[in-house]
Amino acid sequence: MEISKSKEEVQEQPSTPTALAPSTKQTSAHKDAGLNGRLLFAIAAAALGSSFQHGYNTGVVNAPQSLIEAWIQDVKGNRTGEIISKNQVTAIWSVAVSIFCVGGMIGGALVGTIADRFGRKGGLLLINVLVVMTVLLEGFSKMASSYEMLIIGRFIIGINSGLNAGLAPMYLAEISPMHLRGAVGTVYQLVITISILIAQILGMNQLLGTEQHWPLLLSLTIVPAIFQCLTLPLCPESPKYLLLCRGKDADAQKALTWLRSSNDVYEEMEEMRNEYESMKMLPTVGLRDLFVNSTLRIPLVIAVMVMLAQQLSGINAVMFFSTKIFTMASLDDHAAQSATMGVGAMNVIMTLVSLVLVEKCGRKTLLLLGFGGMVIDTALLTICITYASASTAAAYLSIIFVILFVVFFAIGPGSIPWFLVSELFNQSARPAATSISIAINWSANFVVGIAFLPLQEVMGSKVFIIFVIIQAVFTLFIWRKVPETKNKTIEEISSMFRQRSYQ
C-alpha cells in the first residue's frame, strides 16, 4: 500500500497528487495543478521582496564607487585634519563592500533557526526589519558624515540577503506543484539578475549615480521590502510547514486550497498527512545528523559542492572585469559601461530561458551544459584577453566570450543551486541543510571578492586559468555525483542516496 511509505517518500510533493505513485501516467488532478493567479501572486510576493534585496545590494555600490570613495576621503580628512591617502580610502571601501558577504554568511547560517521558529512566510516578513535599519543607516550616512553607518548598513542588509537566499527558495519550493518546482525555483535567480540590472541603470550618472543622490540610490532597497510587507501577508504560510512542523491540519488544507485555487486537494493532503504520521516516529534532524547519517551526508556534499561551483565559477570576476575588457576593445568609458549593462540584460534573458528549460531538460543537464560551456569559454577568453591589447580581433572576441560566459552561467549554474537543496532533502532536514549550503555560498562569494583583485594584479589576464581548472573539476563532479531531480519524488531521490551509502 502507498500509505505505508516512509517520511521521505511523501515529503517532497509540493503539489502533485501522483507523488505517492510516481509513474508516466498522470492524473487529471496533476495536470490541473499548474499556475493560477493566486500561486503567481504568492510567488511574486515572496521572490520580488526577497531576492531583489540580494541582487540590488550586490550591484548598487559599483556605479557610485568613485563618488563614495571621495566622500569617505573628505569625511576622514575633516576628522583628522590630515591628508588621507588613496590606500586608506580603498581599505575602508573594501570593508564596506566585502562586509555585505560577511553578513550573508551569518544570515545563511541562521536560515534553519528562523525557518523553524517563525515559518517560511513569517521569517520573510520578519527580516524586513533589517531592511528598515539598513535604509536608516545608509540613507542618513552622508548627512551624519559617518562612513561607519554605511558599513554597518551594508552588514545588516547582508544578513537580510543571506536569510532571504534560504527562506525564499524554501517557501517557493514548498508551495509549488512538483512539475513546476524547478521553474518556480528559478524565479529567485531571475529577480536577482533583474535587480542587478536595475541597480546598474539607476546608478548611471544621468540618474542617481551623482554626488547628491547616491544615498537615495542605496535607500531604494526599501521599495521591495514595502511591496513584500503589503502583499505577502495576503498569502498563506507553506502548507508543508503548517502541517509537518506545526501539526495544523485544517490550516494546511486551507493554505493548499488557496494556493491551488481549488478544493480538490484531497490526495495532496493525504500525502502530507501520511508524512506527518511518519515524522512522529522519527527523531528531529539536527546539524550533526547531516554529517553522521550517510543518506543525509551525501546530498549535503552535493548541495555544498553545487553552491561552491556557482560562486567559484568566476561569474563575479568576469562581471567585474567586463568593463575593462570592453575598454580594451577600443570602447570609450561610456560605451564600455553601456556594454556592461548589456551583459546584465543578457543575464536576465538567459535566466528566463533557463526558467523554461529547467522542466524540459532537467537540472543535471543544464548544470553540465552551463559548467562545461564555461570551461571552454573561459579558456578561450583567457587567450583573447592576453592578446587583446595587440589585436583588435582578439579584443572583440573577448567581448563575445564575456557574453557567452554569462549565457552559460545563466542557463543553469546561476539558478539551479538555489532550489536544488530543497529538492535533495526531506522536510525535517531541509532547514539545517539550507543553512549550511547558503552559508557556504556566501563564504565562497566573499573569498572570490577578496582574492580576485590581488590574484589579478599578480597573474594579469592569466588569473582566469584558475577558474578554468575549478570549472572543469566541478563539471566532473556534477557528471559523476549529482542526480537528476526533475519530476522525482523525495523517496526516489532518497533511494538513490541509500543505494550509494550502502556501496
Automatic annotation (TrEMBL):
Cell compartments where the protein resides: Membrane
Listed Pfam families: Sugar_tr
Stretches that traverse the bilayer: 91-111, 123-140, 152-172, 184-202, 214-234, 298-319, 339-358, 365-388, 394-420, 432-453, 459-479
Comp. bias (Basic and acidic residues): 1-10
InterPro entries assigned to the protein according to its UniProt record, in alphabetical order: GLUT, MFS_dom, MFS_sugar_transport-like, MFS_trans_sf, Sugar/inositol_transpt, Sugar_transporter_CS
Coiled-coil stretches: none
GO cellular component, one term: membrane
Keyword set, alphabetical order: Glycoprotein, Membrane, Sugar transport, Transmembrane, Transmembrane helix, Transport
GO terms of molecular function: hexose transmembrane transporter activity
Keyword hit for Cell membrane: no
Domain Major facilitator superfamily (MFS) profile: 43-486
Record membrane topology: Multi-pass membrane protein
Region (Disordered): 1-30
PANTHER family membership: FACILITATED GLUCOSE TRANSPORTER PROTEIN 1, SOLUTE CARRIER FAMILY 2
Classification via NCBIfam families: SP
Record's protein name: Solute carrier family 2, facilitated glucose transporter member 1 isoform X1
